[in-house]
Amino acid sequence: EYSALGDSLRTVCSRYECAHYDVERVEDTLANKVNQKKALVNNSDKGGFSLIGMKTKLFGSDTPAQKESKLKQLEAQISQTESELAKVQKQCQLFIDDALREVDSFQRQKSMDLQHVLTNYAVGQLKYCQECLAAWTGARDCFRKM
Length: 146
Prior knowledge:
Layout: H1 2-42, H2 51-59, H3 64-145
């Protein structure tokens, strides 16, 4: 029973890692979108070679209308990503709460099982000692009669 529980706990840990990875992935996406928005607002490149910089040199910079359109699109994507992040974080927290409840339940059951086993062991030892005492008492009485 406890080996099956160990396997179950390993599964819970791997599911937690997957849920945490999903949260990190959405956080990275959000950070990238925010950085794109900052770059668009500041109209700055990081320097060096980039596809956006090459496009700007070949075709010219965006018009203010295009820039405003891209900015609105990025803001919508950021808003959508923020709501997705909140949803994923909530799912992760619910999973953590459920997992902690299951582990707590297991710990309580384990304590009860251990108490039951030790109680049965003590009762068995008590009966065994009583039988041994009765046997030795019988042997003593037999030797006294001789």
